[in-house]
């Protein structure tokens, strides 16, 4: 294993940002390669601790000569967001300087060629970080971007061109659900990882062996040693299943047992009023159309001070908010419906 330090110059003299990069050299030049990063949204830590638990497993595989493909690991991909605090509260989702989501605005290339990327010496510091992350990841067969939701199940976002070929990965990782998408106009990191392969020859795209996904490891408070160990084992199983690592003790993943739905089936359920949220459902619950999902207490103590929110269709609760205070129009949860939502959204679901 080789460790190096990446440095991103700040926007004033004497300021810079650093993050560590770990590389494992594979012994087989034709084996698939993999890139893993965590905490692009810098406060989302389940992926960070999963990588921490994975590293000893990789070190053991390296010592035993079982790493066949090149591996690049970025345990904390966003030093800018990691340093952002406002009145004592960590702010890791948006760059405070540009008000841009750290997982938006990545360059969407027409082909997998780093020569097409913007100049890494130009632009705002968050944009230069994004360009560098694409530089580091582009060309790998497997690209995993580890995130988490507020409160939720473990699930993957997968481009339709990679499904069902990626079903073995979902099984190996032990996730509960897969959300399929086809359009990226916002420039997510996942989009930057898969869109360059959409309009190139098959021998370049190699979609049958390609993996690109945003991994949502449950909720933001699920930073736990046992969960980290389980997630690390899932990552390891994926790397073995796809031939990056050899391990004869593991079996080939079976069929995916979770549920799969297109992004257009998701109802986000905007709150009709501002107030306190009383949930009737939790992630994983199956609900019927018309079931009460939550109550908004907007005028406490008054006879008409509560507003109820009901399911617009049958489906499964994928996520809900971790905070119980809400403004009118903010989304309450993600309901994965059995049918297309009447409020179907293309591209990203949230800012």
Instruction: Give the domain tally.
Output: 2
Which topology of the largest domain does CATH recognise?
Answer: Aminopeptidase
How many helical stretches?
A: 7
Largest beta sheet: what is the strand line-up? 1-2-4-3-9-13-11-12-14
CA gyration radius, whole angstroms: 21 Å
Q: Structural class given helices, strands, pairing?
A: alpha+beta
Helix coverage percent: 10-25%
From the N-terminal CA to the C-terminal CA, the straight-line distance is 37 Å
pLDDT averaged residue by residue: 97
Question: How big a fraction of the residues is strand?
Answer: 25-35%
Q: Regarding quaternary structure, how should these chains be classified? A: single chain
| DSSP summary, beta strand count | 22
Question: What topology emerges from the helices and strands here?
Answer:
Elements: E1 2-9, E2 16-24, E3 34-38, H1 46-63, E4 71-74, H2 79-82, E5 85-86, E6 89-90, E7 94-95, E8 100-101, H3 125-137, E9 142-149, E10 151-152, E11 154-159, H4 167-173, E12 177-181, H5 189-194, H6 202-205, E13 211-219, H7 225-241, E14 259-262, E15 266-267, E16 275-279, E17 286-287, E18 292-297, E19 306-310, E20 315-320, E21 325-326, E22 333-337
Parallel strand pairs: 3-4, 3-9, 9-13, 11-12, 12-14
Antiparallel strand pairs: 1-2, 2-4, 5-6, 7-8, 10-20, 11-13, 15-22, 16-18, 16-21, 17-20, 18-19, 20-22
Helix pairs in contact: 1-7, 4-7
GO molecular function: hydrolase activity, acting on ester bonds; metal ion binding
InterPro entries: AstE_AspA_cat, N-alpha-Ac-DABA_deacetylase
Keywords: Hydrolase, Metal-binding, Zinc
